[in-house]
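User: Please fill in residues for this 756-position structure.
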């Protein structure tokens, strides 16, 4: 018998049972009989969630006296595992599974084969439907699909309380009220509290059983047509004009969108009596089960593509296409998403958006760069967050410690508020330093600037009293755009930034895209894709190859800075000739503008990032050419240690206070002595108090850091007596202790320098 016939037979007989006037337990007993007969199975059992545990509500084949007696926790035994993971199990030999648990009161010792599917309501498992057989065998695909269809029907019947009575009422998958703490990967540090809001609101399938099968079929046909039109339109967009990984994804989408097998399976599910939404979900469940069985990473990726496409189809057929941003945030919010793009993040109200929690996410994702600039804490790789939180749940995000607390208790709120209060007290103290120049106790002026990348970031200059913008990341405009930003658009941004800076220095870093900051409209051919993007064809390397890109940016910067000073910094310079080539492009564009009698900047100064270690070996050749050098500690660290900072196993392995890094930085600082070139630090390292202390001891007096770090660093500077610190750092570098961080912390405490 086919899956369609089995499901249709079950559905027809279930309707007959529901039409009867017998009590709920009798109906459940009839349901297991119907399923067992349809699948020719010796055992069929239904477990439902009641008071937090799975309880045997009905069975055919097991000991009837075990009904309402046998109970197991979610996650306990095979049945509990199905409920916990919301997954299907199909086992030829149940005892061989590591989660097998024998319950003697059921009398199930003679049965070998086992298959079970979750009964899901509002994305939570509220029960499990199981079948068993004496002979060891795996159930056929058509039998599993019939079980999945039946479980969906049971979910709706249970939701409408047609299979339970008041005496044995059970949990309908209502939102959990229990506190739960989940761990994740810190992507952007900080504390945040608010109500959970899903980036893409959940689609709840309220009606599973179709009233008109043909009408449901036509709804799916129309949804397929619309989805295919969307994908075809995507292929015509400018960002898909060149090769790249996105093209490969698009081709996979097109393959699935026009795949007759996929649409046929959805139609078969409709034939069995399901609505269009339920049919898509039924086929999607099958896909998820297949995904868990696939070892081939490439094939698994393709199955994930099908999962994404199924979600798109489901949203189309249900008419739910928008995100939470379009609806507006009504209160302090923690945004929940599987993944998020930078443009999507920027759509949200920054006054209400307090934090982001991602099911996936990586340290190098574009959204992380933007979130850091916006000052929004982000926690990634929080597995299961989508199924464990409900819309509106209160959430505490501690991205410093890498945890998210769902539905916190009052003591947890109190402790969190205390930390927040302490943070606010410190922020108030830092705010009082806004107009205070940061001099050390011996009278050395330390320059404290901010990193920025958005037009709104410039307001932090006034709020923090920073000396200027030591790094304006021009690539943000490129990352959030679907097409290459035109010269006029770039010029407007740069001019607005200079206007808002109101005379304070702004150093514009030329665009750093490519590699791990890929944009679709500039992707290399798929065959040429970097094995290691962070050290690949990116930043200045890409800009020099695509000379038109740098020419347009040069023109935009020169015109925007008319009548003012222009400071330009080139990223990822490996050798002096690269700096020369980039500067020549700017000088050519300047000459072009002069010939046309355009107003020019009053002065132009050029500098570069020192983030590639090779550049340190030729500083004697570079220094006569530049006005300033900024050490980029983020990339420098991964290049020195050959450690990809996007790899979670390596992200925290190498310490910024390692003797290797400190000695390297010391050598760079000493090489600059006697030159007129300004030396600065640009990166997260300079914004941490202990690390900044070490850097000052190495001779670094210019910092470009996140706006939030300006106050803490200015306060630190005023407590330092630089001659003593310099001598101590040289002693530590000469004979490094086993724990440099501990040694430097001890010195700071001995000199009454707070580090928290």
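Assistant: Residues filled in for all 756 positions:
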């Amino acid at each position: 018998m086919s899956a369609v016939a089995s499901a249709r037979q079950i559905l027809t007989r279930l309707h007959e049972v529901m039409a009867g006037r017998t009590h709920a337990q009798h109906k459940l007993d009839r349901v297991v009989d119907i399923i067992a007969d349809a699948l020719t199975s010796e055992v069929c059992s239904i477990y439902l969630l009641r008071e937090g545990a799975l309880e045997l509500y009905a069975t055919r084949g097991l000991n009837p006296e075990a009904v309402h007696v046998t109970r197991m926790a979610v996650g306990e035994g095979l049945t509990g595992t199905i409920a916990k993971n919301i997954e299907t199990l199909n086992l030829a030999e149940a005892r061989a599974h590591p989660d097998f648990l024998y319950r003697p009161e059921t009398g199930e010792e003679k049965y070998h084969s086992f298959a079970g599917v979750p009964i899901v309501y509002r994305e939570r498992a509220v029960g499990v439907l199981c079948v068993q057989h004496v002979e060891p065998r795996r159930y056929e695909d058509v039998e599993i699909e019939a079980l999945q269809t039946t479980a969906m029907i049971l979910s709706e019947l249970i939701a409408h309380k047609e299979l339970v009575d008041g005496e044995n009422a059970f949990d309908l998958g209502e939102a959990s009220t229990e506190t739960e703490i989940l761990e994740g990967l810190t992507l952007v540090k900080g504390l945040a509290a608010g109500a959970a809001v899903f980036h893409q609101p959940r689609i709840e399938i309220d009606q599973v059983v179709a009233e008109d099968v043909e009408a449901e079929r036509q709804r799916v046909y129309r949804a397929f047509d619309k989805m295919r039109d969307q994908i075809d339109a995507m292929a015509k967009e400018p960002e898909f004009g060149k090769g790249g990984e996105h093209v490969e994804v698009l081709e996979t989408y097109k393959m699935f969108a026009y795949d007759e097998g996929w649409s046929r399976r959805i139609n078969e599910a409709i034939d069995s009596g399901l609505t269009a939404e339920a049919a898509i979900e039924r086929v999607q469940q099958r896909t998820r089960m297949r995904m868990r069985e696939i070892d081939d990473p490439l094939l698994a990726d393709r199955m994930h593509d099908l999962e994404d496409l199924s979600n798109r189809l489901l949203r189309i057929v249900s008419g739910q296409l928008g995100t939470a941003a379009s609806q507006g945030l009504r209160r302090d919010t923690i945004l929940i998403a599987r993944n998020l793009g930078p443009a999507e993040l920027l759509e949200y109200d920054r006054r209400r958006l307090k934090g982001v929690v991602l099911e996936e996410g990586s340290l190098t994702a574009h959204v992380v760069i933007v979130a850091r600039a916006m000052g929004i804490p982000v926690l990634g790789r929080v597995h299961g967050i989508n199924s464990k939180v409900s819309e509106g749940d209160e959430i505490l995000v501690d991205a410093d410690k890498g945890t998210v607390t769902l539905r916190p208790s009052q003591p947890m709120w109190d402790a969190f508020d205390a930390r927040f209060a302490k943070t606010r007290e410190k922020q108030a103290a830092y705010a009082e330093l806004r107009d205070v120049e940061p001099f050390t106790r011996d009278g050395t002026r330390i320059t404290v600037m901010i990193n920025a990348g958005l037009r709104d970031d410039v307001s932090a200059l006034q709020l923090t009293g920073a000396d200027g913008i030591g790094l304006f990341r021009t690539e943000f405009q490129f990352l959030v755009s679907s097409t290459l930003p035109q010269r006029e658009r770039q010029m407007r941004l740069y001019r607005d930034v200079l206007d808002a800076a109101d005379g304070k220095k702004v150093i514009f870093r030329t665009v750093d895209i490519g590699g791990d900051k890929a944009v679709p409209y500039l992707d290399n051919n798929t065959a040429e894709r970097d094995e290691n993007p962070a050290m690949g064809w990116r930043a200045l390397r890409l800009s020099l190859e695509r000379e038109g890109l740098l020419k347009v940016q040069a023109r935009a910067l020169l015109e925007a800075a008319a009548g003012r000073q222009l400071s330009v910094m080139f990223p990822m310079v490996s050798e002096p000739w690269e700096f020369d080539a980039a500067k020549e492009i700017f000088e050519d564009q300047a000459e072009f503008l002069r010939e046309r009698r355009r107003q020019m900047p009053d002065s132009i100064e050029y500098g570069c990032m020192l983030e590639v270690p090779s550049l340190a070996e030729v500083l004697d050749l570079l220094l006569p050419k530049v006005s300033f050098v900024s050490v980029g500690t983020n990339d420098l660290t991964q290049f020195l240690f050959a450690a990809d900072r996007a790899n979670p196993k390596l992200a925290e392995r190498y310490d910024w206070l390692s003797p290797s890094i400190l000695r390297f930085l010391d050598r760079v600082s000493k090489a600059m002595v006697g030159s007129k070139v300004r030396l600065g630090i640009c990166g997260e390292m300079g914004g941490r108090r202990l690390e900044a202390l070490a850097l000052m001891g190495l001779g670094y007096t210019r910092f470009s850091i996140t706006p939030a770090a300006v106050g803490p660093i200015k306060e630190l500077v005023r407590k330092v007596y630089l001659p003593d610190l310099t001598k101590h750092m040289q002693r530590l570098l000469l004979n490094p202790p086993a724990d440099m961080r501990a040694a430097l912390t001890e010195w700071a405490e001995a000199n009454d320098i707070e580090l928290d």
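For context: Confidence is low (pLDDT under 50) at residues 238-246, 524-528.
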